[in-house]
Amino acid sequence: MKPDTGKTILSLIKDSDFKSINQLIKHFQGKYPKKYFYKPVGIEVEVTNRCNLRCQGCPILMDKYATSDILSGDKIIDVLKGLKDTGIFAYSLTGGEVSLRFQTALKILSADHGLDIYKYNTNGSFFNTVSKTGKYLTALKKAGFSRKNKYIKPVFVISIGQQNQAGLPLRNAVNVVSQFYKIFDVNNVIFSLNVTDKNLLLAGKIYQDFTRLYEKDTGEEFNENLFKVRLFSLNNIDTLRRLKMPLGENISIPELLKDYKKNYLSGGCFNIKVRNTGNDERAETLIPRIVLRPNGDVYTCQGYSYVHLAGNILRKPLKSVIENVNRNDVYKTVFTKNLAGLYQLALRKNPKVKNLILKSAYDPCDLCKVLTASLTEG
């Protein structure tokens, strides 16, 4: 890999003159050997697997019991420091609920590891009073959660909907929204309010309830221009089954792939190539991203299905894990030929796949999981 000597990653980004974040990504991917097909530029750090809520629609609800918090803050910082000679230049902090290890999160944010922060996720459970909310946000800002260059405007994400049905008061979201831009500069941080329910109509209703409560508590109209509001419906197949929700019509895999081609970028897998976003500063533009779980496990993409386990940083440095991914034929198929290529590989390894009938509710991660599992089945 080609090291940039004499400068930190942050200073290199700040001093560069790229026209868009996509050009920045292309530059950092150039640090990898040309033969590599997998060139991650971001890393999602799951600070904890624990959560203080049990949202029924959570795609990793059952997974919360499967891993444990093994990585210390110092170990995570060491991992980030070791990424200088890779193409990874930014990271996010998520969970579980990251606030359960808030001091660890602050330690990572303020550490001299050289990477930029692009996203911070929370369920909002720690914002039960205005005073507590202000102290929390101020601590984040002091630790370094803010814009450091013209390319990356970090995103603060709070989720409502399923969280409120799990017992979290909607007023918590009102508290953080009302205080956020009193502490952060609107030009330096994006606030994203994610609203999720069983369908978009229900998500829209929760959003309306939120805006009414906001206006009641603050005496002000909610300014949608200051906040990024996104409505989501549940779409993970395991979640839909657990909640006994409709799974749609029977559908063959070729038909499902055709639907993906119409409705998704890159034919369905959002981790394959960078979106054509121009100067867009959304966190979603940092693709591909690698995932570091609290027990040290490393996955090749940020999909909640956790399909492709690449290794564990307690046994092997992350740089070596990335090298091993680039030697794996299955990974190469996914990242160069998309899900359609993975389907063809599965057919060659296991012809029975041709007869599989799924449901139209299967999303790309669900299909990837099915096809990958079929490679080891008779």
Q: What report would you give on this structure?
A:
With 378 residues, the chain is an alpha/beta fold. It has a single domain, classed as Alpha-Beta Barrel (TIM Barrel), CATH 3.20.20. It has 13 helices and eleven strands. A nine-stranded mixed beta sheet has the order 6-5-4-3-2-1-8-9-10. Helix 4 (102-110) runs parallel beside helix 5, helix 5 (130-143) packs across helix 7 and helix 12 (329-349) crosses helix 13. The chain is globular and about 65 Å long. The protein starts with 8 loop residues before the first helix and ends with a helix. Mean pLDDT is 87; it is low at 272-284.
Question: What strand line-up does the widest sheet have?
Answer: 6-5-4-3-2-1-8-9-10
Distance between the termini: 39 Å
Helix and strand string, N-terminal first? HHEHEHEHEHHEHEHEHEEEHHEH
Question: Which word captures the global form?
Answer: globular
Oligomer: single chain
Please count the beta strands (DSSP E, at least 2 residues each).
Answer: 11
* Spans where pLDDT lies below 50 across 5 or more residues: 272-284
Proportion of beta-strand residues:
5-15%
Number of helices: 13
Helix content: 25-40%
Radius of gyration: 21 Å
Biggest sheet descriptor: 9 strands, mixed
Secondary structure category: alpha/beta
The name CATH uses for the topology is: TIM Barrel
- How many domains make up the 3D coordinates? 1
Return the average pLDDT rounded to an integer.
87
Q: What is the CATH-assigned architecture?
A: Alpha-Beta Barrel
Helix-strand layout with pairing:
Layout: H1 9-15, H2 21-29, E1 42-46, H3 73-81, E2 90-94, H4 102-110, E3 116-122, H5 130-143, E4 155-161, H6 162-165, H7 171-183, E5 190-197, H8 200-218, E6 228-233, H9 237-242, E7 250-252, H10 253-263, E8 289-292, E9 297-299, E10 309-312, H11 318-325, H12 329-349, E11 357-359, H13 364-374
Parallel strand pairs: 1-2, 1-8, 2-3, 3-4, 4-5, 5-6
Antiparallel strand pairs: 7-11, 8-9, 9-10
